[in-house]
Amino acid sequence: MIKAIVQRREERAAQVIAVGAATSGTDLDRFSHTIEDSPELLALLSETVQAAMQTSLEDKVVALGRCLANGVEDDTRIDAERLRVRGLARIETQEAKIMAVLGQPQNPDGRSPWTGWNRAEILARLPGYVDVLDASMALLVAEGLAADAGVGGYGGGGPGREQWNLTDFGQNCLRLLQAVTPTGQQP
């Protein structure tokens, strides 16, 4: 079993680098050489590979590879891509599902003045999360991916008054995750 885990981690590391090279339209040797010549890109690579090796979420590996490619293609984006990698690093299937709910319009008819999702609405979509929603939301907030617009608003927030939304950063990370088809290729 340990060998299978090690093999899977190595495959994920190779996959994230291959996705980065493919996304940048560069052959793997040139892509690798560019990274090796830059301490900043080496740091981005390290964080990207580490996050990829620890996930079971296929879409996340592809999203991480795209972040790596963005940093290689434009060295002014390295810091931003490192932040994206850090935000994506802790997201797993359960957070991705919550982000997908938060990314949908809460009130498609546009008649409600509230601008977010409360606990009951999220749980109506994800009923199996009743005991873990708080932990997942805390992680999304800690990573800067979601925020409660109800805090500090009229009525003071609190249970039943949540107005969970994705931040702009969260929306960006969700788009990265959702831009992947089941085969791992861009739609």
Provide a descriptive summary of the structure in words.
By secondary structure, the chain is mainly alpha-helical. The protein has nine helices and two strands, in the order H-H-H-H-H-H-H-H-E-E-H. It has a two-stranded antiparallel ribbon. Helix 1 crosses helix 3 and helix 4 runs antiparallel to helix 5. The chain is globular, with a radius of gyration of 18 Å. The protein starts with a helix and ends in a 9-residue tail after the last helix.
Would you kindly provide a brief summary of this structure?
Helices cover 60% and strands 3% of the residues. The chain is mainly alpha-helical and 187 residues long.
Keywords summarizing the entry:
single chain; 187 residues; mainly alpha; globular; two-stranded antiparallel ribbon; 9 helices
- Give the uncertain stretches in residue-range form: 181-187
Number of helices: 9
Order of helices and strands: HHHHHHHHEEH
Largest beta sheet, briefly?
Answer: 2 strands, antiparallel
Strand content: under 5%
Helical coverage, percent range: 55-70%
| Mean pLDDT across every amino acid position | 87
Report the C-alpha radius of gyration, rounded. 18 Å
The rounded distance between the terminal residues' Cα atoms is 35 Å
- Derived from helix and strand composition plus strand pairing, the structural class reads mainly alpha
The counted number of beta strands is: 2
The strand order across the widest sheet is 1-2
How does the overall form come out from the CA principal axes? globular
